[in-house]
Specification:
Layout lengths: L2 H23 L1 H6 L8 E5 L5 H10 L6 H10 L9 E5 L5 H10 L5 E4 L6 H10 L20 E4 L5 H21 L10 H14 L6 H14 L6 H9 L38 H8 L8 E4 L5 E4 L2 H17 L1
Antiparallel strand pairs: 1-2, 3-4, 5-6
Helix pairs in contact: 1-4, 3-4, 7-11, 8-9, 8-11, 9-11
């Protein structure tokens, strides 16, 4: 029997089986009848499984009434090789026909996780490791600031390395897009330098209304050749983002000999100190035009800004007094 005849024979046999089921117990009708599953289910079909294995798995978890009827229906409709692996959401009381169509469509469950603004690559790698639905190792860590903080979607079985690469591509694309629309007269020449300053702004404030203003202060200091004097850069120089500093900043830290200590070096540090979000990058590329050169925490979640050193010193005194009261 040649291949064509064998295939025709099997198809005719399948038709006969379905007709027999229909006569004996309403087998065809079962395809359109709600299953006995009374609750929503999420199932995972691994790659390389056979139609018989898929059918048994669906029956075992209660989302179909008959693995035999489902298997015959899949073969009869020519979908034996069209079922796609992945994670699927099966609603309660779904029919076998709708389940078969779902497995053919490949509309798998979309999972997601969010990388917060201001996280280091070490923190992002730890987050990826904790996502159990991802596979494989994270691999070699990218440079600091290479990952865009954002919400990312993935499906069951995606690899950590591929997701990490996608996150880096998102940062490259975002930075290139925002750099192309930058304001004029900025005191840096490359998008990479903008990313460094954006990472500092990201760590200095979590308030959206302050980002561009703090960026304006740093821009003014760069233009005047003043040191940035940013505390987050000092902490990063001591830990390289591998762990929290674990203490309040003592005066000795301000003299630490690292290339990130902006109380010592002039200009920008050699690289980002965290992963800045889109808003922080936009802030340094479109800073507020201001004469301010200083800012300090105001003790209420924001900052007090000043144009002169005496004014700044008064703001610092008020902040320290508030700390002592609290």
């Amino acid at each position: 029997m040649n291949r064509y005849r064998r295939r025709l024979f099997l198809r005719l046999l399948a038709v006969l089986l379905v007709i027999t089921l229909a006569v004996a117990g309403g087998g065809v009708g079962r395809l359109y009848a709600p299953s006995r599953g009374s609750e929503d289910q999420t199932i995972v079909l691994e790659r390389g499984v056979s139609v018989a294995q898929v059918s048994r798995a669906l029956q075992d978890v209660g989302v179909i009434n008959s693995s035999f009827v489902f298997r015959v229906a899949v073969r009869l409709t020519g979908n034996a090789r069209a079922l796609k692996a992945g994670e699927y959401f099966i609603p309660a009381r779904a029919t076998m026909k709708s389940i078969m169509e779902l497995l053919v469509s490949g509309e798998t469950v979309m999972r997601r996780f969010t990388v917060p603004e201001g996280w280091t690559v070490v923190q992002v790698a730890a987050l990826l490791e904790s996502v159990s639905a991802l596979e494989g190792e994270v691999g070699r860590l990218p440079p600091e600031g290479a990952v865009l903080p954002e919400t990312y979607f993935f499906t069951y079985g995606d690899t950590r390395a591929d997701v990490f690469a996608r996150m880096q591509a998102a940062m490259r694309e975002t930075l290139a897009e925002l750099w192309a629309a930058r304001g004029s007269g900025l005191p840096f020449d490359t998008p990479e330098q903008a990313l460094v300053l954006a990472s500092i702004v990201e760590r200095e404030t979590a308030r959206p209304d302050e980002r561009a203003r703090i960026a304006g202060v740093f821009i003014n200091r760069l233009r005047l050749g003043m040191r940035l004097q940013s505390d987050p850069t000092v902490a990063y120089g001591l830990t390289l983002g591998k762990a929290p500093l674990g203490r309040s900043r003592p005066r000795a830290d301000l003299r630490s000999d690292t290339p990130y200590n902006t109380y010592v070096i002039r200009g920008l540090p050699p690289g980002p100190i965290t992963g800045p979000g889109r808003a922080a990058i936009e802030a340094v590329l479109h800073p507020v035009a201001t004469d301010e050169l200083y800012f300090v925490a105001d003790g209420q979640g924001g900052h007090a800004f000043a144009k002169t050193l005496p004014e700044h010193q008064r703001n610092v005194a008020r902040w320290r007094a508030r700390q002592e009261r609290d």
